[in-house]
Write the structure tokens for this entry.
Amino acid sequence: MSPTGGEASFFDQFIEDYYSECDEHLATARRVLLALEGSAADGSPAPPMHELLRSLHTLKGLSGMVGDACAEQVSHALEDAVRGIELAGGRPAPAALDALFAGVDGLQRCVAAHRLGEAGPDVDALVATIAGLAPRATPADARSASDTRTVAEALGREESTVVYRFEFVPSAELSGRGVGVDAVRARLRAVGTLLDAKPRVFAGGVVFDFLVAARAGVQPDAAWAADGLRWSLEGELARPAADDAPVAPSADAPAAPASPPTAATGVSGASVVRVDLGRLDDVMRLVGDLVVSRSRLEDALRGAASADQSALLDVLADTNAAMERQLRQLREGVMRIRLVPVGEVFERLRFAARDAIRESGKQVRLVFHGQSTEIDKVVVDRMLEPLLHLVRNAVSHGIEGPTERVARGKAPEGTLSLRATASGDRIRIVVEDDGAGIDVDRVVQRAREHGLALPEEALTDEQLLAVLCEPGFSTRDEADRTSGRGVGMDVVRSAVRALSGELAMETVDGRGTAFTIELPLTLMILDALLVDVGGQQMAVPQPALREIVQVETASIVTFENNAVVRYRDGVLPIVHLARLFGFAEAPASRCYLLVVGTEAAPMGLRVDRLIGLREIVVHPVADRLVAMPGVAGATDLGSGRVSLILDTAALLRMAEEQRDERAAARLAAPPSRHSSGART
Amino acid sequence: MSMMGEGESYVLFELAGATYALPSRQIQQLDMVGTPTPVPNAPAFVDGVVSVRGQVIPAVSLRARFGFPRVAHDVRSRLVIVRELGRTVGLIVDSAREFATIAPESIEPLPEGIGGTSGRYLRGIAQQGERLLLIVDVHELLETSEQPTDTVPAEAGTLM
């Protein structure tokens, strides 16, 4: 699909898989650490750590393969440390636990930096701290011994199990057939328990090694050999050998250096959705229905010559109605595939909330409701950041310290609840605390200091929220940063609005504050290529793109107001977008042509720069002041700045009309009479 | 704030040294002026589109609409978001920070002398103490009967 070629797109897909896997394993690591912390607090049995170890191990392997040295280093240190803790009885000291949390946080920042193509953070101090938790040297044999143990533990008490070793070599061809790492994983899960999955690099390619403990009597399907899978019997699984080198983690290990509170930048989700098979089947069935409808059309066409008019019309009208219904259902089906439970985001928030709670020294209980409420994947990902803001604000500014709470007659422990509910085609997420409520007088005073026009009478909650959301309102001076409730509220509101949502607030003095985010369940979403046209960022729907070529501007031939470039066996007419739109033209030696149109009549849209592929939310541009041909809509990329979405079909039509006009004008009148819009 | 008793509530804004008034009921909200995205071939007085409450709306330069020279936006510049017959449009003004109540009977028709480009978009004039408030006719303002200009004027680009 990607216009940049097969290999690159295969790699892109793999990289997305990597990020998605990292997200999953980071989530697992956090969950186990939180459980560990919980068990340390209430003395309940510590959770088994093999799951944590396996996640760290996989993170290490994956990071090594994609060349994320920083993530590899941190996950390696974490794995060793956790192994040491496990050997010592699986109950880390609080300081050690802090170091592990800091490590997972650091790891997440490494992955996030890699994802954004930035240099990884400096993790030396972090790695040293974590290494201090497990002071033993790790000779190769000791580590492989513990690997085996982990494997055995994963199986619990099953005495003898057949273990297969699978090798999967992915390729663009296989992925084209739908056989990717995830598909293979799913197959192997059908065979038995997946003990280990590790990618490794060989001769410039990638191989995935899987260890699978097969259920009794289950064997791999011989047909899989055609799908790049090879396997061998690894043997019976041995019971764990007693470990000979248990080393207690140092109980008074130095606390990890306080990591900057930037977790927000590291928690963007990967663009991979795990799909319930039933939903895919629904879509498949609908596609089948469409195929049937099309063959009805074909029959009708074939019979059109002989059939009488009215019978033909009936069939066509019928089929048209059926296809309309089927397409609508198909669209809904695809929308359902895009839905993920909102609980996914809540879990990530739990981690961020934990940091904020520890920093604040307050007692806060987190309560989640409606985690299974489903929402579009894109909406969920984009809601993470604003929700993080709201949660952090509630902890740092909303909920009071234990002493103050008791003085007000409340329980010393505050409650922060996140609730998700769906109603019709909207979803509502409420972040509510039982804290002090917003100090309205203070906000009003600051607003007046900042020169905001406010009515004389008492502010409604809605007006108060509007004040809090004034850009820069609360961050203008340092005092606000710590005391105001509006930290980053403008960011929250613009993120919500970018998704066609609404933000509302209700605050009661001394009782607490509730923020409500209401969002559409699904949005009109499009894969688009972002480009730079004369300094403006624009989006071009990806389905419209046939190809992208880079050309030397010198190779563009201009004649009689037409510009063309050599393309395949012929020439490609070019529309200079910046010129068509009257934007500034930047002289450059090279430019990009987005090839659109049909195979028979392609056309190149000249742009200055490619920015990248993005999933965008489409907003209509409907007002007659701005609804112009060539503009299909607009999108808000989260920066607050709107980018226009190009309507390539309309641009083609415009270019053709201009050509015709010019041709007609050439015949009729001197060329100087043209309107300025006809420049090329 | 009001000196005229019963009347309709208005939001006052400044433009090129004069004070204008818009009926509050037609105003959805006041916003900071972001950076409008220019729209090719839109009328010359349209600076572009902006996103407001998840909706992409036109941002009209009221200076350009009234025939005044454009100026660079500063911290006092405001986007006045008006609703008119189901449409939502942003008006960029020099500043907007006051409310006022104006009694209908104190609004007088425009004297013959005031005309020009901006005169077309005014409903009347009201005296408030020492100053004159020019009452804006939103409907007339958003009319697009005049031919849209072919190109975005060059100065729109330099303001961005």
